[in-house]
Amino acid sequence: MMNLTGVGGFSIWVVLYAREHLGLFAIGFGLFIAAGAFGGIAGSRAYGFLERWLGMVFILRAGLIVEALTYAALALVTNPWAAAAVMAFFGVHAVVWGTAATTARQRLAPPHLLGRVTSAYRLADLGGAALGALAGGLLARTFGLLMRF
Questions:
Q1: pLDDT at 148 over 60
Q2: How far apart are CA 148 and CA 5, in angstroms?
Q3: TM spans, by residue (predicted)?
């Protein structure tokens, strides 16, 4: 469900957002996206500490709120540097939440069903992203760029 409503729409929306809302061109867009990647690297380095400190359940629950707040922050900022900072934070969140979700799935699924559980998860994940991209593009075209918020 998260990919249908969030990530899928984000893949279409982020290009338009960077161009129309932030006024970024090719190099600026590349740096904007790179900020998220650098956040992801930081998230991968911090995950072990965060899981020990906060616990996996807290990370998974809080991650849903963090996701919503990140999108809201992107809607509110017009400065490219502030938006890049939000993207970096989103990169940390995405890797930390994704790692926690994968770890939980691997711990909870019976070993003989792990392949099937992972397959079903990936189908919902990627299928949701495809449908979300379509829905996000249609919403942006029909109601405007910031409608998704």
A1: no
A2: 9
A3: 22-41, 53-74, 80-102, 123-143
